[in-house]
Write a structure and sequence with these properties.
The protein has helices spanning 18-28, 40-50, 57-66, 71-80, 100-104, 107-117, 160-171; strands spanning 92-97, 131-136, 148-150, 153-156, 179-180. It is α/β, with parallel strands linked by helices. The protein has two domains: 18-80, Arc Repressor Mutant, subunit A; 92-190, Glutaredoxin. A five-stranded mixed sheet has the order 2-1-3-4-5, covered by helices on one side. A hairpin with a 2-residue loop joins strand 3 (148-150) and strand 4. The structure holds FE2/S2 (inorganic) cluster.
């Protein structure tokens, strides 16, 4: 498990752009009167998307004002949930699951590939400014372990070679295909499927 550090370099100002301001205003309408503060997670996520995948302190202050709530409460939420990045990440952000099922299936080898090909330490931007990586807890795709998430996509059933191929593809400005890297359909058994064969929709 990695600890999230708050960036020492912080922009002075943050505000939602026109599109996100509209989304934020619509989002808070989803909550009953007087409960608009419950939109804090959605707005933090919106701020993260707008700000190259990380949330500066100025965005937390802006959201606190936006929702008329104390800044410390927004800060508490942003620092509690690991999905919020509190420092810049690479354009390609690799999150490697190292929880038990992925660990048993070799996630440590994926970590080694990232250390060698991206940066020696996690949460450190690569020299070419393109990548960063970190270890995370279970991403809910244990059946296809080991796996990692790159930005919004899951890459599953990996090994060191496959991960290296993925990095090479990105280096060559190609988009690697998400999903299983052992040609499984979703979480279907490998090779011959033996169950639910009589069920048309299974
Ligand atoms: S343990 Fe890795 S996805 Fe669940």
């Amino acid at each position: 498990m990695s600890l999230k550090k708050i960036s020492k370099i912080q922009p002075d100002k943050f505000e939602f752009n026109k599109i996100n301001l509209e989304i934020a205003n619509k989002t808070i309408l989803n909550y009953p009167d007087g409960k608009q503060q419950s939109a804090v997670m959605a707005l933090l996520y919106l701020a993260q998307r707008q700000n190259d995948n990380w949330i500066p302190l100025s965005a937390m202050k802006y959201i606190a004002k936006f929702l008329s709530m104390p800044y410390i409460k927004v800060y508490e939420v942003a620092t509690f949930y690991t999905m919020y990045n509190l420092a810049p990440v690479g354009k390609y952000f690799f999150q490697i699951c190292t929880t038990t099922p992925c660990m048993i299936r070799g996630s440590n080898k994926l970590v080694e590939v990232c250390k060698k090909n991206i940066s020696k330490n996690e949460s450190e931007i690569s020299n070419n400014g393109k990548y960063s990586w970190m270890e995370v807890e279970c991403l809910g795709a244990c059946v296809n372990a080991p796996m990692l998430q790159i930005n919004d996509d899951y890459y599953e059933d990996l090994d060191s070679e496959k991960l290296k191929e993925i990095i090479d593809k990105i280096n060559n400005n190609k988009t690697p295909k998400p999903g299983s890297y052992r040609d499984r359909v979703n979480t279907e058994p490998e090779k011959i499927r033996k169950t639910l064969l009589g069920n048309k929709n299974a």
